[in-house]
Amino acid sequence: MRLPAFLLLAASMLATPAAAQGLRDRLPEDEVLYFLLPDRFENGDTANDRGGLKGDRLVTGFDPTAKGFFHGGDLKGLIKRLDYVQALGATAIWVAPIFKNKAVQGPAGQESAGYHGYWVTDFTQVDPHFGTNADFKALVDAAHARGIKVYMDIIANHTADVIQYRECGACDYRSRADYPYGRKGGLAGAAINPGFAGDHVQTAENFARLTRPDFAYTPFVPAAEKSVKVPAWLNDPIYYHNRGNSTFAGESSLLGDFVGLDDLFTENPRVVAGMIEIFGSWIDRFGIDGFRIDTARHVNPEFWAAFAPAMLERARAKGIPNFHIFGEVADPDVAALARHTRVDKLPAVLDFGFAMAANEVASGKAGTDRLAKLFAADVLYEGGEATARRLPTFIGNHDAGRSSTFIKAAIPDIGQDELLARVRLAHAMLLLLRGVPTIYSGDEQGFVGDGVDQDAREDMFASKVAVYNDNKLLGSDKTNAVSNFDTGHPLFREIAALAKLRKAHPALTRGRQVTRFASDKPGLFAVSRFDPVAGTEILVAFNSSPQPWTGNIQVETGSTAFTSLAGACPAAAAAPGSITLTLPAFGYAVCAAGTPQ
User: Fold this and answer.
1) Dihedrals phi, psi of 257, to nearest 5 degrees
2) 508-531 residues labelled b (16+ CB within 10 A) or e (exposed)
3) What single DSSP character describes residue 30?
4) What angle do CA 246, 264, 287 make, to 5 degrees?
5) What SS3 class is residue 83?
6) Contact 367, 518 (CB under 8 A)
7) What was the pLDDT predicted at 594?
8) Contacts of 159 (CB under 8 A, 6+ apart)
């Protein structure tokens, strides 16, 4: 039945299309995210390519021919390309970390640069390779003027690799059982840290008794780097776990160094307060709109239970009521993802489960019930389906690789036309199903990476990296050796059209989702999404098969007339509660029903 007029009026903000709302009024699920690494996006100022450093690439970190070094992209370049981002339909930009990094690190012969931003030394300023704090302020202001939000990528788990150990270089992890806090260097060592009750007693009084950091190894800071970290308290080894490299299993997942990076003692209240002040300051100074939290699963839950509410309150005080926080939990298991919303109290997490399911379905590796099972588990998240709608979804990123790479791996002999069709289908799933769609820069230009990590971090501007430039792009005769900001690219146009459609219909952003059809084989996957106020239905259907699909799909009995928003939809239901639909191979359709009577 129709809602009374006064209820429609009272709930009007809930149903207002994202495109028509003010930037601060938009909920996290209203956004279309665009994720990029500044170094690989656009070079707006060649004067900062070396970050103000002098010397060869092992000093400056700059080598545009090497995939593991700085290439020259910066914040001025991103500002220059905001027209492009806006044309794609993105409403928020997630920018890889911009904090000042250790320019180069790694053992001799295996060095690489901090172009990605995850090796922070100074948490208070922009890395000179990317520009200045003033440049970041200019970016935020310019984006906001266009109605585009800016999300920062932050790290609280670790800093750059500065602390060294007297005993070894790449040191193995040493556990609390074998190397307790109360003994120096093992069970037989001298008594130290008298009265310290352990890291589970997270009070200032208890941590005041932890005065010696040499319980597992003997940490030290090289003289040349004794004051390199900012704020200054970060230079003291007492604020780090100092237990050697994580094995990413058991307690080492929380307490171990992430491939040598200095692992912060996030159980210590001083570290908690320090991180809250560091990142709260970025909200205060720049009015940013959200945080993606790197390596969130490697930090103790108590830290996030304090940190996340503090950031939300800091944002509200700045007039940002819909600040979006989501943690990186690199696990496709929904139970593991959901645990971090329940135990850690993170408002949201990156939906690695969706990434795997969508790529497996789009490639034909799995039946469409792979997606149905994923969505059935949305109840596991704290807040259930409402929280699931705020999970940033993706099909490729800078760590795991691109959707095109996953699909090629599943179908090694696939042709370019079929690969393009399947990647197009994966993007349709990304933009039309529940969650906050996150486009990885370059995907809209048909980038086809060679693998994970550095092999998935191609330049958008003309690249000089040989292993990027030999890639065969989808939907284009170009290569990575030239600039790729083509707004006429078929994937760009497809994504832009879907983003526009999504933003115009609250059912596709804030609407609950009901699975209508799934199978254990490739073929049809269909859901209905419902306007959060009017209750009207939008049927979204995908065909993951190389063969056309025709059949009947359940809809609401009151959904009798339909309008095609994408693909081919019938004008009317075949019978109350059923619609007959035909989808081409790798096709999709979006069918909007009238208001139920």
Assistant:
1) -70, 135
2) bbbbbbbbbbbeeebbbbbbbbbb
3) G
4) 125
5) helix
6) yes
7) 84
8) 119, 120, 121, 229, 234, 261, 262, 264
Which residues carry out catalysis?
294, 328
- Residue 417 CB partners (closer than 8 Å, separation 6+): none
Of 307, 31, 324, whose CA–CA distance to 153 is shortest?
324
**What parts of the chain have a pLDDT lower than 50?**
1-14, 596-597
Name every residue whose Cβ is closer than 8 Å to that of residue 133 and which is 6 or more positions away in sequence.
Answer: 125, 126, 285
Give the Cα-Cα-Cα angle 53, 58, 59 (nearest 5 degrees). 20
Please report the pLDDT score of residue 169 as a whole number: 87
Overall pTM > 0.90: yes
Q: How far apart are CA 421 and CA 427, in angstroms?
A: 10
Tokens of 25: 């009024």
Residue 16: per-residue pLDDT: 60
Query: Which pLDDT tens digit goes with each residue over 452-476?
Result: 999 999 999 999 999 999 999 999 9
Query: What tokens appear for 537 in the block?
Result: 């239905």
Report d(CA 404, CA 506) in Å as an integer. Answer: 29
DSSP states of 292-353: EETTGGGS-HHHHHHHHHHHHHHHHHTT-TT-EEEE------HHHHHHHHHTS--S-B-BHH
Query: What residue spans of 98-219 are helical by DSSP H?
Result: 133-145, 204-207
Rounded CA-CA distance 190/215 in Å is 9
- Whole-angstrom distance, CA of residue 57 vs CA of residue 67: 12
Backbone angles phi, psi at 258, to 5 degrees: -80, 95
Bridge partner residues of 160 (DSSP): none
The label of the residue with tokens 């020259």 reads 72
C-beta separation of 236 from 207 below 8 A: no
3-class SS at 440?
strand
**Whole-angstrom distance, CA of residue 555 vs CA of residue 533:** 18
pLDDT of residue 17: 60
Per-residue confidence (pLDDT) for residue 19, from 0 to 100: 52
Distance from C-alpha of 468 to C-alpha of 64, rounded to nearest angstrom: 11
Q: By CB neighbour count within 10 A (0-12 exposed, 13-18 middle, 19+ buried), where does 211 fall?
A: exposed
Per-residue burial over 48-77, b if 16 or more Cβ lie within 10 Å, else e, is: bbbbeeeeebeebbbbbebbbbbbbbbbbb
Query: Which contiguous run of DSSP H or E holds residue 78?
Result: helix 75-80
Pairing of strands 112-113, 104-105: antiparallel
Q: What is the pLDDT of residues 521-552, one digit of tens each?
A: 999 999 999 999 999 999 999 999 999 999 99
Q: Which two tokens stand for residue 317?
A: 């005080």
Distance between CA atoms of residues 527 and 342, nearest Å: 27
Angstrom distance (rounded) from CA 208 to CA 206: 5
The span from the CA of 462 to the CA of 112, in Å, is: 21
pLDDT of residue 21: 72
CB 467 within 8 A of CB 66: no
Phi and psi, residue 445, nearest 5° = -110, 10
SS (H, E, C) 542-574: EECCCCCEEEEEECCCCCCEEEEEECCCCCECC
